[in-house]
Known about the structure:
This protein is of the alpha/beta class. The chain is 39% helix and 22% strand.
Amino acid sequence: MFKAVIFDMDGVIIDSEPMHARAAILALKKFQVDVTKEYLEASIGSNIRYICSRMIEDFQIKNASVEDIIQANNEMKRVLLDKEGHITVPYAIELIKNLYDNKIKLIIASSSSCEEIEGVMDSLHIRQYFEGYVSGSNVANPKPAPDIFLKAVEKLGLSVDECIVIEDSFHGVTAAKAANIACIAYRNPHSGNQDLRGADILVEGFDEVDYTFVNEFYQQCHGFATILYTERTVIRELTMEDIPHMYQIYQLPAINKFVDYNCESVDVEFEKHKAYIQNVYRYYGYGLWGVFHKADCVLIGRCGIELKTFDGEVIYELGYLLDSKYHGQGYATEFVKEVIKHCFDNLHIPRIIALINKNNIQSINLATRVGMNNIGECKIKQNDCYKFEIIRS
């Protein structure tokens, strides 16, 4: 389940790479070294100590230590920062706020120092949106090693398959993939010619990237097909991980008495759903989908369409149920309407049927609210039922 985004900072939140490059070039002149912008671009994403160690080796610097170069570099960055301030990546702050508003946990994992990260968070007034940060100075191995992202996941108290990373550098993308975390790569024009082919998806900007985009990306990376979004819910294919919660909903007395469901254990339900994924979702492209509360990603019900033969007639049968704790709040009406619309507009189904137990007053009222008509009576396993229909107009 999608729970967190791990942000790189330089090149993703702040457009700092041009300033970093100028600071490094000016700092190295103090040690009689002329370094090119292209040389510096190759190190984007790694931490400053590692970069300085390489410089000493590559340029055979005899009159300075790693600490000397870091100090000179930091002094030049402070001079430029006092003069220019932090320049944000367009729409990055809007994305951060949008993810936060949708209850997604956020953390920064940057090769920059703790002081630099905290300075950016305070300068941009974004500290309140983040669970914290991990600095490259606090891990044993810098990017492209996975250490920094694994520590961020640990700090969040989550697993790698509940997170995604947003990066802009080859080293960062490589580190994310080494940590087995899905990665969005932002092609920052100021980050040099970065090889970002290892990322799961590449974006040219954040202007059209929001919670819906990121959530859809996450679902695709993890093999979930998201079908619809409503105002308060997400409708997607049920995965094996969802089955224990779905099983619990089936056991609720208000649900169980009206559902044609008889399963002895959650293990049996696992096996049934494996077959359902292959034989229904994959074969037909539709089925009974899970309904999830958009605010916290909790499974709250089920809704969808199935192809069946009933009384010698092939029908598209609508099925829906909702966890009883969410009854009376308009959720079922909201998601059933959207599922019907999806079936008509996108699946081109001409007619939808709902077979409802006569004692299920809530379901009967719902069918009426969403525009279905009672067209007669029928029996299902000795139960007296109504037959409702709605026709694509």
